[in-house]
Amino acid sequence: MISVRLSKELEEKINLLSQQEDITKSDIVKEALEMYMEKQEQQTKPYDLGEEFFGKYGSGQGDLSTTYKTKVREKINEKMSD
């Protein structure tokens, strides 16, 4: 059970619609909430937009995030020894 405070204007619109359509106010609110929830679920998330590209152009070296300092140091040492 949930209680919701509505503006007078919205409450009047719901009352009018309830009378015109011969359905309960609760059914109107339930249907509106279901439609809202469906709309929210269908919205595209940023992750979904880029999902096909994540990892697509990887280096193939899965340890770069943990060994980058060592790799940088090796590159610097190579340049210094040239």
TrEMBL record:
Top-rank taxon: Bacteria
Name this polypeptide is given: Ribbon-helix-helix protein, copG family
Gene3D superfamilies recorded: Met repressor-like
InterPro entries found in the cross-reference section: Arc_rbn_hlx_hlx (IPR013321), CopG (IPR002145), Ribbon_hlx_hlx (IPR010985)
GO biological process, one term: regulation of DNA-templated transcription
Domain Ribbon-helix-helix protein CopG: 2-39
